[in-house]
Amino acid sequence: MKSFNAKPWLLPQPVIIIGTYDENNVPNAMNAAWAGQWNINEIMISMGNHKTTRNLNACGDFTVAFASKETMVASDYVGIVSQKNNPNKIQKSGLTTEKAPNVNAPVFTDYPMTLECRIKEKLNESETGYYIIAEVVNILCDEKYLAEDGKPDVEKMDLITFDPVHMGYIKLGERVGQAFDEGKNLK
Ligand SMILES: Cc1cc2nc3c(=O)[nH]c(=O)nc-3n(C[C@H](O)[C@H](O)[C@H](O)COP(=O)(O)O)c2cc1C
Predict the structure, then answer these.
(1) The ligand 1 atom nearest the CA atom of 81
(2) Model pTM greater than 0.85?
C-alpha cells in the first residue's frame, strides 16, 4: 500500500450546486463538494468566503441541486467564476431559474433534483467561512426522473461525483445491488 498523508480525499464526493438570492433577488449558484448528510432532515456544507456566503448571511435560505453529466459544464463554471466580479455569472452559465416554492432561493430547473434548505446553524464562523448545518425543508424532483414507485430514480439522473485526486468529474454507473440486503448472504 502506498501512503499519501492527509488529503481531502473522502470518496466519493458529491457535486452540489448551491442556489441563493442576494438582497436584490439576483440569483447565484456555486459548486461545492465538501458536503454531506448531517441528520435525517439536515445537511452540512463546508462554506468558504464567496458571494454565496454574503447572500447566505443576508438570508439563510438556499437550494441544493445535484450536478449531472448534462449540466457538468455549467456546474463547473459556477465553481470557477465568482459573482463578486462577474455580475452576469448566471446568464453566462445558461442555467434557467425560477423561485423555489418553499424557500427564498432560486431553483435551477436544468438539474434533475433540488433540495430546498434553510440554515439552522453556522459552526466555526470566521472571515474564511463556516460550516453550515441546514434543515431540508422540501425536495423537488423533475417528473421525468421518477421511478415507477413515484420516488426519484437516481439511476436515471446521470449524476456526477467529484474526483479530488485528479480533479475530475466521474459519472455514476449502474445499480449493482440492494442496500441492507446484499450482506444478508453472509449472515
Ligand atoms: C469541484 C469544485 C468543488 C468546490 N467545492 C467547494 C466547497 O466545498 N466549498 C466552498 O466553499 N467552495 C467550493 N468550491 C469553490 C466555489 O464554487 C467557487 O469559489 C465559486 O466561484 C463561488 O462563487 P460565488 O463567489 O459566486 O458564490 C468548489 C469549486 C469546484 C469547481
Answers:
(1) 21
(2) yes
